[in-house]
Structure formats: structure tokens, C-alpha cells
User: Which sequence fits this backbone?
């Protein structure tokens, strides 16, 4: 049985809510942040006003993309299947 990133995120979030030790809360909070970047998100269309072109951008940081599997700026996992390229 394989555990998904979504299941891992849910487990960490539930665990974080019950913690009382600050260092443990900080560690689990960082783990939550890391797992969230592994969950694929669909790129967003971005209108380049100076040229009128529509380009793909990272849904997390806004960096322009060119078909990468991960954002080169922030590391967000990307899911291109649902990207339609329209604003």
C-alpha cells in the first residue's frame, strides 16, 4: 500500500494540532510545508501586459514556467494535464 502526499499532509496536520512542545510543533510545521510543495498544482495563466502573451506561471510563487515538472524558483510540483493556457 502506498501513502499519498495528501494522506501524509493530513496526518501531519492532525499531529501538529495536538502538539504542545514548541520545538516539535516547529519541526512538524516545516514537514507540512515540505509536503505541500510535493502535491502537484496546475500552473496558472499569466497575461504579460507588455506583449499581450499568455504564459504559464507557478501557482505558488508566480514564476514563469516552460513545461517543467517542478518550479525552478520555489520547487512546487506541477500538474500540466489540467492547464488550458487561457486567462
Assistant:
Amino acid at each position: 500500500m502506498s501513502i499519498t502526499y495528501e494522506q501524509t499532509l493530513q496526518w501531519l496536520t492532525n499531529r501538529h494540532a495536538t502538539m504542545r512542545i514548541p520545538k516539535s510543533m516547529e519541526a512538524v510545521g516545516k514537514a507540512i510545508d515540505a509536503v505541500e510543495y510535493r502535491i502537484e498544482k496546475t500552473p496558472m495563466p499569466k497575461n504579460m501586459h507588455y506583449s499581450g502573451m499568455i504564459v504559464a506561471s507557478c501557482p505558488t510563487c508566480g514564476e514563469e514556467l516552460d513545461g517543467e515538472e517542478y518550479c525552478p524558483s520555489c520547487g512546487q510540483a506541477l500538474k500540466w494535464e489540467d492547464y488550458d493556457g487561457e486567462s
About this structure: Residues 41-87 form one domain. The radius of gyration is 16 Å.
